[in-house]
Amino acid sequence: MQFSTGHGGGRRRYNRLAVPSPAAAEIAERELARQLATLSRARVRPEEAGAEVQAVAWWNGLARLGLDLPLVAVHDFGFLLARPAERVKLAAEPAVPDGPVAAYHGLLQEVARSESLPLFDRAPLRDEIVAILLARLLADAFRLWATQAKPASASSILPLVSPHYRRSLADLAGEWNSDWVVGFLDRVVEQGPNILARIDQFDLGPLRLLGYFAPGAGVSDLAGLYQLFSAPRGAGALDFCLDLVPSLLETRRRGSPQAFAVDGYASLEKRGPLDALLSSELAHDPDVFEVKALSDELLFYGHERPRDERRQVHGILIDGSVSMRGAREVFARGFAVALAKKLSLMGSMVWLRFFDSRMHRRVPAAALGGSDLPYLLGFRSEHGRHYARAFDDLAWELQAEKAQDLSLTIITHGQCHIPRSTVARLASLASLWGVFILPPPELVLDYLPLLRGHRLVTAETLARPADSRRAALALVDAVTVESRR
Amino acid sequence: MLTRGETVLQKQAEQALREGRPAEALGGYRRLLNNVRALGGAYETWLAGMLAAYHKLGLRRMGGYLLLALRRFDEAQSAFDPATSPYEWALCAENMGRQQEAAAVLRSAGLPTSAAMALERAGDGQGAVGQWRAALLHERLRGHPYQTALAHFNLARVLRHIGESKPALVESTTAQRLLEACADDFETRGERDRALDCYGVLLRLGKDTGSFENLAEGYLNSIRLLAGSEQRSLVLQYYDDFLEVASAAGEWHAAAMLAGEAADFSVGLGQMYHRYYRQRAVSLWHEAARQNLLAGGPVEVSENALAASIDVAASLGDLHIIGRLYSALAELDLPSDKQARYAELAARRRGSRPSPPVESPPAEHWRRQDAYPEVWLQDLVEWELAGHPAWVLARLVVQPQALIATNRAALRALLVAADEDFSLENAGRSAELALALGEVMVYEVLRPIEELASHPAALVRAAAAAAAGRTPHRRSFGIVRQALADSDATVRREALQSLRALHFRDAFASLAQLFRESADGEARQAALHAIGQIDTLEVGLFLIDVARQDPGAAGETALRYLRGRQTPGLASMIHHAAMVESGSVRKALEALLEG
């Protein structure tokens, strides 16, 4: 628990994870040495150079998630997850005779022999993913250890460059007593069956979704990605989105207009009135003509150099308040991400943002698949709702931006009472759409007439499997078609 | 049993009364009534004597206050002029069943919400609706959004009660908007308790209207605000109650997630109920999956729910139930490769040892009776009475309190506040009133004490600071903080004394905050002294941190309070803190374990 003042400026901070008096770098070095000393108890012995540094990299990832485990456990479990060769090696070792390390060694061997781990060998696991998998495996043991016997760690991040890496384990173990890890290793052994059960559970679904949005994009939001793996809300929204995305990928990309200088005319365009249609286009077969027309591939004469066509902007506002807790937030987030994908493919500039008592940061749809997808699927509000303020702020913001060709879709619940005057201001700045999830039998919101349209997602809609998917896609279509008018 | 001194004093007072010296008798009875715990009818005897003395002195109004305490309301009412003592007159009328008359007088006295409440208590729904509407138009409410929200809430409540559902919905919506805004504003200003009140009303609104969204908003924000405080039992109670609400509403997803959060909260505090909540989460996720299938919902929803159930079961180490859950997964209408995988995983768990026994829920004695205060009425009364000491105290005298001593202490203070000679300009009498308010020791007197805490005279401010120290409520810290910053040394001294005395269980968070933020060494020591009196693991951990990080007087004080402390779990925390320390700090921590 932290007892920080939040005031700074000379006030003492009482933080169980940091001792303020020595310099921070010195603290980190000491802690590194203390943690490295625990490797004298390691049962996995990789031969690769820099194995300790690799383990510390994973340790830092875990520390960012609030799990400052003994390095020895991070090291042993990490290498079993990430290095198939280490698994084979350890699995082949004979059992250790009864003694203090036998149970721990035995557990590691069971992990090494798990039939589920080879699922991860298809591609190298990034350090963030290993950290997350380790967190999933060892969080229960950490939780028990933390409430009973855990000593405070001195530093939250360990250096990856240090003279301590060149020291021998014997030297480090002689300087730092590592008896303190015994309690944690005992908890790990107690949790052995749970650990093995969790390995069976590991779900690679989130990695699939990331691939839809930005192949190869790095993930920097570790905590968000951990949430995605662990929190039921993330998994639910994720699955919903995965269900929709393949259909959305059928959306044809909307190309941007190209301009060419031609006699008597300023340009050739991909849009224009019928009387400006390039005559050669009429020579195509009817089928081809139709396809080209639908694909915005027909050419028209342009009589003057056109301005660069403004791309339509679409904002998706997702109610992130706790009022959405449960099935509402699962549908809302999955639908929002799917809608963003569709609109992006159609050529719109799309951003998403949560609201509760504030409008939270804008997430460009182009950024999805990197750090922002976990944020979107796992967002957790730390405020109550205050719709009047949030939407009033938005109206001022949009007014200052002088936004044009803007559409907004508000995804919320049936008690989202935004003041009518605020909605009227927004309606003068953008086309407004509403999606209300699991509303009361009679939806009474005085601003509904100010919306271009709205849809209700009822329990019946959600209950029917095919209809649920169809309803979601229909919603997406309704919003996107209307927003193009 | 009277003391010898009381017996003598009583006899003297009676004699003075008989001999036509009522003023002297009054002085004697005033001293006797200081003993608010007197038994065996003695107190009532003294009241009767004092009443006689007031009558002989022609002080009818003062006699009226005694008659209130004696619950002789018809006689009391005749002692009060409705023009000059409207609240007292109305109190009498209400207690005689004449609420309509009470409402009329309160309305004329510019107390519109009290008038509305009186009509409600009279069972006059239509009248109450009219009065609440009138209250909303009253100038008093202008510029008071929280009170306006409460008035709209109450109007909606009464409209619903008389079957006017559509107008009730309009008023509920207005109340909701205002409450959201007020909660956000209060929280932004750091007034956490006020924000909690708003969410409490929103929660009640959700219950009254059947709106799960408002219930979620009320419960979950209350939990969020309380989670960082010492009110752990209240958080657990809120979790429990919202779990029941969500389950009853068929909001299985929400209920299952909530059970998981309750479990995490319990573990974080070293509580033993985390297994109970995890078991609930397992069954709630399972129920979510089952209900989804019954409703014909998407199979992926059930798959996710069962996977979530397995996740929680893994935390419990319940491999038997994991096997059964994988079997359930294998039976879903999923692609064949998934079905095969789930069947294989189910087979692996076959033969696992049986599930551990079902855990017991939190014991009933954890539940607090005052978990859901009806602030939508209480706060309006407080605001409307505006700290008027005689009105606040008269109300306390008339309402039965948990302790008779509270009613009597309120009467004692009332006799000071209502005295013919009393004036707020008189510093001595005002200080006497402040001290008397401090003896009442209930939440309601804090408002009048707060008013006195800003008195121009230091004597009065010092007395108010002392009174705050005797009223065990977090709100008292506001008065103490103000007094600690006073320009007068006497006021600051009283504030320090009060700080040392405020060591009730819920006080830890306020004390710790004051300790962290204060630059005054004496105040920090006083706060630490109070913290040291509270016996919880969180306090123990706090003291360890202070001992480790403050080499001066605060560290010494923390070590002193750690010495001999028997809080379960604390010894191992001290041991491990010692292991990562060095030098004198390590020695000092190790010495604690040797004791």
Task: Characterise this structure.
The complex is a heterodimer of chains A (485) and B (595). Chain A has helices at 24-37, 51-64, 71-82, 84-92, 102-112, 127-148, 169-175, 181-190, 192-201, 205-213, 222-230, 232-248, 286-294, 327-345, 372-378, 387-401, 420-429, 459-463, 465-484; strands at 2-3, 14-15, 267-269, 300-302, 313-319, 349-355, 363-364, 406-413, 431-437, 453-457. Chain A has 485 residues and is an alpha/beta fold. Chain A has 3 domains: 20-202, no CATH class; 241-250 and 310-484, Rossmann fold (3-Layer(aba) Sandwich); 257-308, no CATH class. Chain A has a 6-stranded mixed β-sheet, with helices on both faces. Chain A has a two-stranded antiparallel ribbon with strand order 1-2. In chain A, α4 crosses α5, α11 (222-230) packs across α15 (372-378) and α12 runs parallel beside α14. Chain A starts with a strand and ends with a helix. Mean pLDDT of chain A is 77; it is low at 1-21, 209-219 and 251-263. Chain B has 595 residues and is an all-alpha fold. The longest helix of chain B has 24 residues, at 165-188. The radius of gyration of chain B is 30 Å and the shape is globular. The two termini of chain B are 45 Å apart. The chains are: A alpha/beta (485), B mainly alpha (595).
Characteristic terms for this protein:
heterodimer; A: 485 residues; 3 domains; six-stranded mixed beta sheet; two-stranded antiparallel sheet; 10 strands; 47% helix; B: 595 residues; mainly alpha; Serine Threonine Protein Phosphatase 5, Tetratricopeptide repeat; Leucine-rich Repeat Variant; 33 helices; 72% helix
Reconstruct the topology from this structure.
The complex is a heterodimer of chains A (485) and B (595).
Chain A: E1 2-3, E2 14-15, H1 24-37, H2 51-64, H3 71-82, H4 84-92, H5 102-112, H6 127-148, H7 169-175, H8 181-190, H9 192-201, H10 205-213, H11 222-230, H12 232-248, E3 267-269, H13 286-294, E4 300-302, E5 313-319, H14 327-345, E6 349-355, E7 363-364, H15 372-378, H16 387-401, E8 406-413, H17 420-429, E9 431-437, E10 453-457, H18 459-463, H19 465-484
Parallel strand pairs in A: 5-6, 5-8, 8-9, 9-10
Antiparallel strand pairs in A: 1-2, 3-4, 6-7
Helix pairs in contact in A: 1-7, 2-3, 2-6, 3-4, 3-6, 4-5, 6-8, 6-11, 10-12, 11-12, 11-15, 12-14, 16-17
Chain B: H1 4-18, H2 22-32, H3 42-56, H4 60-69, H5 73-79, H6 86-95, H7 99-108, H8 112-121, H9 125-137, H10 145-161, H11 165-188, H12 192-209, H13 212-227, H14 232-248, H15 252-268, H16 274-294, H17 299-316, H18 319-330, H19 336-349, H20 375-385, H21 389-398, H22 404-417, H23 427-438, H24 446-452, H25 458-468, H26 476-484, H27 489-501, H28 508-517, H29 521-532, H30 537-549, H31 553-562, H32 570-579, H33 583-594
